[in-house]
Design brief:
The structure holds two protein chains of two kinds. Chain A is mainly α. Chain A contains eleven helices and two strands. A two-stranded antiparallel ribbon of chain A has the order 1-2. The longest helix of chain A is centred in the middle third of the chain and has 32 residues, at 79-110. The two termini of chain A are 31 Å apart. Chain B has one domain (42-51, 71-269). Chain B is built from twelve helices and no strands. Chain B has helices at residues 3-7, 16-34, 40-56, 72-93, 95-101, 106-110, 117-146, 154-177, 184-200, 212-220, 222-234, 240-269. The chains are: A mainly alpha, B mainly alpha. The interface between A and B is medium-sized, with 33 and 37 residues.
């Protein structure tokens, strides 16, 4: 019989955080998710295909309707090369949100998974980090596939495009963390439509499919508030190799969102389950 | 036994249609309470697509041969109604139907009364049809404010959207009736059938742009037939004979799906 004999790691986090928030076991949460996915691996693999279908549709059809578009730095580029980085950012967001909303809601309300976890030395921050970590891992696998196909199609314009992978991980981290916080406020399955109500406008209007200049000035400022817009700006700049200082701002925006989300998620788990 | 006692009896078997409508009334009661949370799937989703693709993306498209000489907004508006209908119908025919068998078990409860599995299936299809017509009408009104319609053919487009939705929905209901696990296969249906169908069935661009080996996706998909018929009545870009052919395909598919679902509903609910 396995007995837990070693003391949990006592790092600086444990001294800073309120006791019992964190025990350094977020890896166990990720391992558990990995094991459950190994039973439905088809579903996991299929997630990589969705953005590829979109890419194919843009290559074959949409690209024929639109000639050239003005990209970062004022250069003209083919429509497919313009839209592909946007799709990569959007798929990082969608993948992260899917994992951190529908699946998390089920685990939270019906499977009572976190009740069980919190009865062990695992703390709320472990759960938050573990769930976000899994989303980042999954987003990473998908974005590597996507970038591979983009490269095979000859779309990236520079070596900076390699940095699109860490950018995708950052987007996945920010959205899954915020998604977890929001889903803890939902009460019933029928409220999942609200998630789509937020997600779809983000997907459609964050300059994924057309340049920001399409909008009137006032709406441009609203779009600049959207988190996905910052992800797409980052991706599009990296894809063609046009770097600017505003990209530091994009990164800072997403990092701040991720930090707030992870903190908020651990607080919500603690509030909901540790009473 | 006096007549008064006979009247008090509750074991009265209702007619086929009334039995199904009793269930529809049940769905309606639920909907009256929760309509707000389904607003996204009821009409708002295609409106968002119309704003993004019709206006935003459309601003980059020159009206030309590919769009039949119409503006991209006019070209894409009828197809987005039909595509939105297909999405709604497949969604409503998957997990909610499985839930009737498995989680909520409302189908099991209802068939313990004189209502038959066939009536349960019929009521589900009628209800999806009502949802589709409602969603299509809401979308049509908002799209009219965008200036998307060229004629009153839009009224027929709403009906075509409903028919296409039912043709997509009944086969999924048959699938749901044969699903015993947690429904992971619906995820695959969405990813490998619904999304490719939405992208490659002439919704956003003519299938003539596709290489010939890929066009069979469009020819087999109910959405392409719905899109063509919808464009025929709103823009007049397809001939009347072809339109009848498209509608016939949809009716046959809906019928085959219904028959299969009927068989599996009885298999699962009659012990």
């Amino acid at each position: 019989m396995a007995v837990l004999t070693t003391d949990p790691p006592r790092g600086v986090l444990l001294r800073v955080l309120p006791p019992s928030m964190y025990s350094g076991r977020s890896k166990a949460v990720m391992e558990r998710t990995f094991l459950t996915y190994s039973h439905v691996w088809m579903l996991f693999v299929s997630g990589a295909f969705e953005p590829l279908f979109y890419l194919m549709a843009f290559q074959l059809g949409f690209g024929k309707l639109v000639g050239e578009v003005v990209g970062p730095g004022g250069q003209t580029m083919t429509y497919v090369a313009f839209v592909a980085p946007g799709l990569l950012a959007a798929s990082a967001m969608n993948g992260a949100i899917l994992d951190s909303t529908y699946n998390l809601f089920f685990k939270l309300k019906y499977a009572k998974l976190y009740d069980a976890m919190l009865a062990t030395p695992i703390g709320p921050l472990d759960i938050a980090l573990g769930e976000v970590g899994w989303s980042v891992l999954r987003g990473g696998i998908y974005s590597v596939t996507f970038l591979g196909v983009m490269t095979a199609m000859g779309l990236p314009g520079s070596w900076w495009a390699v940095l699109m992978i860490p950018a995708a991980l950052l987007i996945a981290m920010a959205f899954s963390a915020v998604g977890i916080v929001l889903v803890t406020f939902l009460r019933s399955v029928s409220q999942f439509d609200y998630i789509n109500l937020v997600l779809m406008p983000l997907f459609l209007f964050s300059t994924t499919f057309y340049p920001l200049s399409v909008y009137p000035e006032a709406i441009q400022w609203i779009v600049r508030i959207f988190p996905l817009y910052h992800g797409i700006e980052l991706m599009r700049g990296l894809s063609v190799g046009v770097l600017s200082w505003s990209m530091a701002g994009n990164v800072a925006y997403l990092l701040a969102l991720a930090a707030i989300g992870i903190y908020g998620a651990s607080r919500r788990f603690g509030k909901l389950l540790l009473r | 036994m006096t007549t008064a006692e006979t009247k008090a009896s509750t074991g009265r078997v209702v007619s086929t249609w009334l039995g199904a409508w009793l269930r529809v009334e049940g769905y309606w009661m639920w909907y009256r309470r929760y309509w707000l949370s389904t607003l996204y799937s009821t009409g708002l989703q295609p409106v968002l697509f119309l704003a993004a693709m019709g206006l935003g993306f459309g601003s980059q498209v020159q009206a030309g041969a590919a769009t039949g000489g119409f503006s991209y907004l006019e070209y894409v508006a009828p197809a987005l109604l039909v595509a939105g209908g297909a999405q709604l119908a497949v969604g409503e025919s998957s997990y909610p139907v499985l839930s009737g068998f498995k989680w909520q078990q409302s189908y099991v409860a209802v068939t313990a009364s004189p209502i038959t599995p066939g009536q349960v299936l019929g009521s589900q299809i009628i209800w999806v049809g009502i949802r589709l017509t409602l969603a299509g009408s809401i979308y049509a009104v908002i799209a009219a404010l965008f200036g998307s319609w060229t004629s009153f053919g839009v009224l027929a487009v709403i009906l075509i959207g409903t028919l296409t939705g039912i043709a997509c929905g009944t086969p999924v209901m048959a699938l749901a009736a044969t699903t015993y696990d947690e429904g992971a296969r619906f995820g695959l249906v969405f990813r490998f059938i619904l999304i490719p169908m939405t992208l490659f069935s002439g919704t956003f661009f003519p299938i003539a742009e596709l290489p010939v080996p890929l066009r069979w996706i469009a020819w087999l998909s109910p959405l392409w037939h719905g899109n063509e018929a919808a464009r025929a009545v709103s823009l007049g870009t397809v001939g009347p004979l072809a339109t009848l052919g498209h509608l016939a395909f949809l009716v046959v598919l809906a019928g085959v799906g219904w028959a299969l679902a009927h068989k599996y509903f009885y298999r699962r609910l009659v012990v």
